[in-house]
């Protein structure tokens, strides 16, 4: 229903209405009049219509072409929308005469049942009218044309021409004119006219005018046609007016206009594009609540949206509805739903839908398979993923590049390089070109398994085929640097330059890391300067690895200067950076300074993590400040940061080192009560503590316990146990442990050999000691000063001075300078054997080396006495 309006017909300014004199349309004769209005003299004209002098509002006819019409002709609402068949369009309608607005309107109204005659009449007189008269006539003509299906196209195209040719006129004003015209002459075709106008704006891509027109229609209670409404929404979304489009749809909903499935599709798609998932679901629910029904396409659209919301229950419900209605669920629909199920982790439902899909004679496609393969891989179930892959290959499907890439990547991640390379070879056989990503995955996998030869062959293949990119070079470069193979890394760098590939910041970071691993921080600093000169910007990782390098060299001052430079360069430190600084200070014995540093870091937004606290606790433990470490532990708990295995292990280790086995056991119990299992380090700390307490019973109990929980004792734990039995002079158990180590192929280090040989020599078991020493040398373990001292002391005590002198000679050959203790032990042994001359020679040699003899050696040489006060000789 139209609203009545009192607005005057001259609502639009005259200078804005001149466009009507330039209208183009689809009639048989296109006119673009530009001449001024011509007044015709009624007395001298032979025109068909004559204007009465006394009654200018009346039109008299001298011909039979047209009857005189009244200005108040009733509109027959029951008239047919088709033009009457007896209309005569061959006779002239009007000649030259002086027209008035009333005459024109009356004539057009007389032709309201003959739209073609109305159009012809308008063409005859449009150039002879003023602007105001033309507006009224044009609006009236549009309503007449729009009432008959035969002339719908004419009305639509006249409006389209108007929209294209006259951008300056307000759409609101023109809608108002059309509304008033319909109301004034009691016409009922105006809804179509205004909808045609809306469509014209949309087709001309005048979206703002279209929106204004739409809102004006709604204000006038004119329902926009759904098709045009959909086109408007689509145009707004395409023009990046998504929020405005959704606001417009909200206005429609408030008026009870929900549109059709295409409308729903448009607004839901717009919501998904903006991430408005909840709003999209709301529109769907309101659409259904309105009583609107989805068609097959509508179901597909909503299912697609539900996959992104995501709403698994709704997806499956919609699929079931489609099945009950007998609609075919497309392959694309199944593919989306299976993919969404996989993303939500509901693989059971995904597999059920896959089977249902196959039963519906829809073949399982690569996308469905890839979704399932990806899920299995992410769950660590690569075996099942490979099985599914083999099934689709055997079924004749050709996996795409993404599927190959997925499997090669995950096989490489889990270290199954044999299978990864097998799939890679299969890929090439199937003529699927490997990408640089695939090469990089394989390269990473080979290097993680220390298969450098395989990695080199693959790298050469990537280079040969032109697939190797900067990332490919960086993978190998970083690995070489991490392994300390800086020379090989430098050669690779040069090859990359020759290939025309510009090093990235990752490339430079790799070289810096390599130099820092070798302790060459000066070279690493030089590379940092090269980065700055190249125009690249160092990142947080660049600074952090260099800071770590200086801390490792013990140069904490330079490390902290680098940190300040990093902040000054406006490069935000990461948690890795903050933790590196804290850890570095702890390692160089400056743990007490970390609290002040932490406060400064907190000002930059850093929140200490469990790793931070663990570094500080470990630092205090290493410095012997166990009570302070315990205070940090309590502060950590107050800050709401729960301890982890590393925290407990550090504290247990600290208490054991400070001989407070009671607190160590208390911490052990707390650790167990909090649901943590001891790791090998924690077991090692407790075992070492018991061994130092000579409590081998509890040490053995813990040793058996760690075996029961599936852990394997390492060299450190065996060393503690062997030292514990040696201190109790139980060399039999110590040797049994050594034998167990050998059987389990656990390497025996120098410290263990030293402990065993020292105990055997003290027990007088020279043969066993000699055999162990030979075994040690055969395994490439080089004796150090402590081992040599143990050997010389043990041999001298057992009157094997000549053999002890051989050990001293080997020390000199190996550039191991004898200590004062070695000289004193040898002098005492020589004196016992009566070889005073050699004792004096060693004494002089000792003095020449700047070493001072102890009291025992002095008494032997000066007083000729041997008091035997050296504890190593007993």
TrEMBL record:
<protein>
    <recommendedName>
        <fullName>Pentatricopeptide repeat-containing protein</fullName>
    </recommendedName>
</protein>
<feature type="repeat" description="PPR">
    <location>
        <begin position="679"/>
        <end position="713"/>
    </location>
</feature>
<feature type="repeat" description="PPR">
    <location>
        <begin position="225"/>
        <end position="259"/>
    </location>
</feature>
<keyword id="KW-0677">Repeat</keyword>
<dbReference type="Pfam" id="PF01535">
    <property type="entry name" value="PPR"/>
</dbReference>
<feature type="repeat" description="PPR">
    <location>
        <begin position="330"/>
        <end position="364"/>
    </location>
</feature>
<dbReference type="Pfam" id="PF13041">
    <property type="entry name" value="PPR_2"/>
</dbReference>
<feature type="repeat" description="PPR">
    <location>
        <begin position="644"/>
        <end position="678"/>
    </location>
</feature>
<feature type="repeat" description="PPR">
    <location>
        <begin position="539"/>
        <end position="573"/>
    </location>
</feature>
<dbReference type="InterPro" id="IPR011990">
    <property type="entry name" value="TPR-like_helical_dom_sf"/>
</dbReference>
<dbReference type="Pfam" id="PF12854">
    <property type="entry name" value="PPR_1"/>
</dbReference>
<feature type="repeat" description="PPR">
    <location>
        <begin position="714"/>
        <end position="748"/>
    </location>
</feature>
<dbReference type="InterPro" id="IPR002885">
    <property type="entry name" value="PPR_rpt"/>
</dbReference>
<feature type="repeat" description="PPR">
    <location>
        <begin position="469"/>
        <end position="503"/>
    </location>
</feature>
<feature type="repeat" description="PPR">
    <location>
        <begin position="365"/>
        <end position="399"/>
    </location>
</feature>
<dbReference type="InterPro" id="IPR051222">
    <property type="entry name" value="PPR/CCM1_RNA-binding"/>
</dbReference>
<feature type="repeat" description="PPR">
    <location>
        <begin position="400"/>
        <end position="434"/>
    </location>
</feature>
<feature type="repeat" description="PPR">
    <location>
        <begin position="784"/>
        <end position="818"/>
    </location>
</feature>
<feature type="repeat" description="PPR">
    <location>
        <begin position="749"/>
        <end position="783"/>
    </location>
</feature>
<feature type="repeat" description="PPR">
    <location>
        <begin position="819"/>
        <end position="853"/>
    </location>
</feature>
<feature type="repeat" description="PPR">
    <location>
        <begin position="190"/>
        <end position="224"/>
    </location>
</feature>
<feature type="repeat" description="PPR">
    <location>
        <begin position="609"/>
        <end position="643"/>
    </location>
</feature>
<feature type="repeat" description="PPR">
    <location>
        <begin position="504"/>
        <end position="538"/>
    </location>
</feature>
<feature type="repeat" description="PPR">
    <location>
        <begin position="574"/>
        <end position="608"/>
    </location>
</feature>
């Amino acid at each position: 229903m139209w609203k009545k309006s009192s607005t005057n017909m001259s609502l639009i300014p005259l200078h804005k209405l001149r466009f009507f004199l330039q209208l183009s349309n689809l009639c048989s004769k296109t006119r673009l009049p530009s001449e001024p209005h011509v007044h015709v003299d009624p007395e001298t004209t032979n025109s068909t219509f004559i204007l009465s002098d006394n009654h200018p509002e009346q039109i008299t006819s001298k011909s039979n072409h047209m009857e005189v019409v009244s200005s108040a002709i009733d509109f027959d609402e029951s008239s047919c929308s088709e033009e009457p068949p007896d209309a005569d369009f061959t006779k002239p309608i009007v000649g030259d005469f002086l027209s008035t607005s009333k005459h024109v309107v009356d004539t057009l109204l007389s032709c309201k049942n003959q739209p073609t005659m109305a159009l012809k009449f308008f063409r005859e007189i449009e150039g002879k009218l003023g602007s105001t008269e033309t507006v009224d006539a044009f609006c009236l003509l549009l309503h007449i044309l729009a009432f008959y299906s035969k002339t719908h196209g004419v009305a639509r195209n006249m409006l389209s021409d108007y929209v294209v040719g006259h951008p300056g006129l307000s759409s609101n004003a023109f809608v108002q004119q059309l509304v008033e015209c319909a109301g004034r002459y009691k016409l009922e075709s105006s809804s179509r006219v205004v909808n045609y106008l809306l469509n014209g704006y949309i087709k001309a891509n005048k979206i703002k005018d279209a929106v204004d027109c739409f809102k004006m229609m709604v204000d006038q209670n004119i329902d926009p046609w759904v098709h045009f409404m959909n086109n408007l929404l689509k145009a707004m979304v395409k023009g990046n007016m998504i929020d405005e489009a959704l606001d417009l749809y909200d206005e429609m909903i408030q008026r009870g206009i929900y549109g059709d499935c295409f409308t729903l599709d448009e607004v839901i798609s717009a919501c998904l594009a903006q991430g408005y998932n909840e709003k999209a679901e709301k529109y769907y629910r309101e659409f259904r609540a309105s009583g609107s029904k989805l068609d097959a396409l509508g179901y597909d659209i909503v299912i697609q949206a539900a996959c992104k919301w995501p709403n698994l229950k709704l997806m499956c419900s919609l699929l079931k509805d489609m099945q009950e209605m007998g609609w075919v669920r497309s392959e694309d629909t199944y593919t989306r739903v299976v993919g969404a199920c996989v993303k939500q982790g509901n693989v059971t439902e995904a597999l059920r839908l896959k089977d249902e899909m196959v039963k519906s004679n829809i073949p399982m496609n690569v996308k469905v398979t890839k979704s399932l393969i990806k899920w299995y891989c992410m769950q660590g179930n690569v075996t099942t993923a490979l099985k599914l892959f083999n099934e689709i290959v055997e079924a004749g499907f050709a996996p795409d590049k993404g599927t190959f890439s997925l499997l090669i990547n995950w096989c490489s991640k889990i270290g199954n390089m044999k299978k990864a390379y097998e799939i890679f070879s299969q890929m090439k056989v199937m003529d699927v070109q490997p990408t640089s990503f695939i090469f990089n995955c394989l390269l990473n996998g080979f290097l993680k398994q220390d298969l450098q030869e395989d990695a080199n062959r693959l790298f050469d293949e990537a280079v040969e085929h032109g697939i190797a990119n900067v990332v490919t070079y960086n993978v190998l470069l970083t690995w070489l640097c991490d392994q300390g193979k800086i020379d090989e890394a430098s050669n690779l760098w040069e090859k990359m330059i020759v290939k025309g590939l510009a090093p990235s910041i990752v490339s430079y970071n790799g070289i810096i890391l390599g130099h820092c691993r070798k302790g060459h921080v000066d070279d690493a600093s030089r590379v940092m300067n090269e980065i700055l000169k190249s125009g690249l910007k160092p990142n947080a990782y660049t600074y952090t690895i260099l800071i770590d390098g200086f801390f490792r060299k013990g140069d904490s001052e330079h490390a902290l200067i680098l940190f300040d430079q990093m902040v000054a360069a406006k490069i935000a430190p990461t948690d890795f950076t903050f933790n590196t600084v804290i850890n570095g200070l702890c390692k160089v014995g400056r743990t007490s300074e970390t609290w002040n540093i932490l406060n400064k870091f907190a000002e930059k937004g850093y929140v200490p993590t469990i790793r931070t606290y663990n570094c500080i606790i470990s630092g205090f433990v290493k410095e012997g400040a166990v009570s302070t470490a315990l205070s940090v532990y309590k502060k950590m708990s107050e800050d709401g940061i729960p301890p982890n295995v590393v925290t407990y292990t550090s504290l247990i280790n600290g208490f054991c080192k400070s001989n407070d086995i009671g607190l160590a056991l208390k911490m052990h119990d707390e650790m167990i009560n909090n649901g943590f299992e001891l790791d090998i380090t924690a077991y090692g700390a407790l075992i070492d503590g018991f061994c130092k307490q000579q409590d081998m019973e509890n040490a053995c109990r813990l040793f058996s316990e760690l075996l029961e929980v599936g852990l394997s004792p390492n060299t450190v734990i065996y060393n503690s146990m062997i030292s514990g039995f040696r201190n109790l002079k139980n060399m039999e158990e110590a040797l049994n442990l050594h034998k167990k180590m050998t059987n389990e192929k656990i390497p025996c280090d120098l410290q263990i050999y030293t402990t065993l040989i020292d105990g055997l020599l003290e027990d007088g078991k020279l043969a066993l000691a000699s055999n162990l020493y030979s075994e040690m040398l055969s395994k490439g373990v080089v004796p150090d000063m402590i081992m040599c001292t143990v050997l010389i002391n043990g041999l001298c005590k057992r009157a094997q001075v000549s053999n002890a002198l051989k050990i001293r000679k080997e020390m000199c050959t190996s550039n191991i300078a004898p200590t004062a203790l070695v000289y004193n032990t040898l002098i005492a042994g020589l004196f016992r054997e009566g070889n005073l001359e050699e004792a004096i020679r060693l004494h002089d040699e000792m003095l020449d080396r700047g070493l001072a003899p102890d009291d025992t050696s002095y008494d032997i040489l000066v007083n000729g006495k041997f008091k035997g006060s050296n504890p190593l000789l007993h």
